[in-house]
């Protein structure tokens, strides 16, 4: 594959948008995919060159494993109207068996259940351990076909099982050691508690042997583990994306450290085949001055309503407040917009101006919107509010604005975690 290739098909199925390709990765992670790409020019260069189609086979990508099986925490979430919810599974439950067999590895469970979802009927029998219930529950669940997969990209993310509709964390206590694995060779035992894991990038000699001599190995900060830091899923994902030849240094709670060389799993595959995609963009040009005014007006209206749409999603918890950005974020986005050209910068400045106009007119004391509320009160009641109420509300508004500024600045500079 070359940079600039456009994927247009997988195993004979057309790919029009990224979701089409993502679905094939999710549904066939253990199979070789024949990917059809369009390539412009002999070296993928030049928009005027001829475009040709190529089909390339991409083999499954084995998961890198250490041979550690860590304990699964109780379910942290159950998706409404999912197979799990319809079967009566609740947050706090633990899945201990699938079709009578113990769960091999909580990190492997999504792959295991996805395979089972592709058999006729797609029904599985789950053994559930429920708090305050002595006997385990036997529930039959009909799994769904989920044409997507989710990976724990960020610190604190849990493990998602799309075909079932549940998510859970993974504890840092070793529950089992796989035979003939790197963990077994290092002498790790069930009951050991991992408190830190560091991915050690390969040295120059290893990079040269892997034909990556010009590649600069990135350094990843160590992952910390504790009851309030269930970071094993995000570490495991980072391990899959690390360079060939990387090693893992584990620190245990008794002070011991061991260095492991990851091994390839024999029957467990990562759905992500290793492609990096660029966002697709297009240039919208006005053919006349009238159309330019129309497009500009539509963009301004969209920017004006953006604040209200965001506040609605913030209030309904569709968007986390940790997604907010402050002065540093604004400066970064402005710089990137300027790099793309004057039109992008002007559109971004329009967005900022419209947002400021709307925010300034929100009914918050010390803002223009707050003054408008006081003037409306005076017009309706025939007298201004008392000085005591006016001062108290103004101070509350000022505290709110300053608190918001401190919060978003803390997010920008990393003092407050975004995830």
What is the element layout, followed by pairings?
Elements: E1 6-10, E2 13-14, H1 18-27, E3 33-40, E4 51-58, E5 61-65, E6 68-78, H2 83-86, E7 94-98, E8 101-102, H3 109-117, E9 123-129, E10 137-142, E11 159-161, E12 166-177, H4 182-185, E13 194-200, H5 204-209, E14 223-224, H6 232-241, E15 247-252, E16 257-260, E17 263-270, H7 289-315, H8 327-340, H9 342-360, H10 368-381, H11 387-413
Antiparallel strand pairs: 1-2, 1-3, 3-4, 5-17, 6-12, 7-8, 7-9, 9-10, 11-12, 13-14, 13-15, 15-16
Helix pairs in contact: 7-9, 8-9
Strand content: 15-25%
Query: Major sheet, described briefly?
Result: 4 strands, antiparallel
Number of domains: 3
CATH architecture level-2 label of the largest domain: Roll
CATH class of the largest domain: Mainly Beta
What's the number of helices?
11
Question: What would you note in describing this structure?
Answer:
By secondary structure, this protein is α+β, with helices and mostly antiparallel strands. It has three domains: about 5-60, no CATH class; about 65-270, Pdz3 Domain (Roll), CATH 2.30.42; about 290-415, no CATH class. It has eleven helices and 17 strands. The protein has helices at about 20-25, 85, 110-115, 180-185, 205-210, 230-240, 290-315, 325-340, 340-360, 370-380, 385-415; strands at about 5-10, 15, 35-40, 50-60, 60-65, 70-80, 95-100, 100, 125-130, 135-140, 160, 165-175, 195-200, 225, 245-250, 255-260, 265-270. The protein has a four-stranded antiparallel beta sheet with strand order 2-1-3-4, covered by helices on one side. A four-stranded antiparallel beta sheet has the order 8-7-9-10. Strand 11 and strand 12 (about 165-175) form a beta hairpin. Helix 7 (about 290-315) crosses helix 9 and helix 8 packs antiparallel against helix 9. The longest helix is centred in the last third of the chain and has 27 residues, at about 290-315. The chain is globular. The two termini are about 35 Å apart. The model has no long low-confidence stretch (mean pLDDT about 90).
């Amino acid at each position: 594959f070359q940079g600039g290739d456009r994927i247009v098909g997988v195993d004979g199925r057309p790919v029009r948008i990224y979701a089409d390709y993502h679905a094939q990765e999710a549904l066939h992670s253990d199979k070789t995919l024949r990917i059809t790409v369009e390539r412009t020019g002999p070296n993928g260069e030049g928009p005027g060159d001829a475009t040709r189609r190529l089909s390339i086979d991409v083999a499954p990508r084995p998961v890198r494993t250490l041979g550690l099986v860590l304990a699964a925490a109780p379910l942290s979430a159950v998706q409404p109207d999912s197979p799990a919810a319809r079967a009566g599974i609740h947050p706090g439950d633990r899945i201990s068996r699938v079709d009578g067999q113990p769960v091999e590895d909580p990190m492997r469970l999504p792959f295991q259940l996805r395979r089972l979802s592709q058999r006729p009927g797609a029904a599985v029998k789950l053994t559930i351990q429920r708090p305050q219930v002595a006997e385990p529950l036997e529930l039959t669940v009909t799994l769904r076909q989920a044409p997507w997969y989710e990976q724990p990209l960020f610190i604190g993310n849990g493990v998602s099982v799309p075909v079932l509709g549940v998510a859970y964390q993974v504890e840092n206590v070793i529950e089992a050691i796989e035979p003939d694995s790197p963990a077994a060779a290092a002498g790790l035992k069930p009951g050991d508690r991992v408190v830190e894991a560091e991915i050690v990038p390969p040295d120059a000699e290893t990079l040269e042997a892997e034909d990556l001599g010009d590649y600069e190995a990135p350094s990843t900060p160590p992952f910390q583990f504790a009851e309030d830091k269930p970071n094993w899923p995000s570490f495991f994902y980072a391990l899959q994306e690390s360079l060939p030849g990387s090693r893992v240094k584990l620190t245990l709670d008794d002070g011991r450290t061991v260095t492991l060389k990851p091994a390839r799993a024999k029957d467990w595959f990562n759905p992500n085949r290793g492609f990096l995609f660029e966002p697709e963009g297009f240039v919208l040009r006005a053919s006349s001055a009238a159309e330019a005014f129309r497009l500009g007006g539509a963009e301004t209206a969209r920017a004006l309503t953006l604040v209200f749409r965001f506040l609605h999603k913030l209030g309904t918890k569709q968007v986390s407040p940790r997604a907010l950005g402050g002065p540093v974020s604004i400066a970064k986005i402005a710089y990137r917009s300027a790099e793309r050209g004057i039109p992008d910068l002007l559109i971004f400045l329009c967005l900022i101006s419209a947002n400021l106009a709307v925010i300034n007119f929100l009914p918050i004391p010390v803002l223009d919107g707050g003054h408008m509320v006081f003037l409306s009160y005076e017009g309706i009641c025939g007298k201004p509010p008392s000085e005591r109420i006016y001062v108290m509300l103004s101070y509350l508004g000022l505290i709110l604005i300053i608190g918001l500024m401190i919060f978003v600045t803390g997010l920008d500079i990393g003092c407050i975690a975004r995830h």
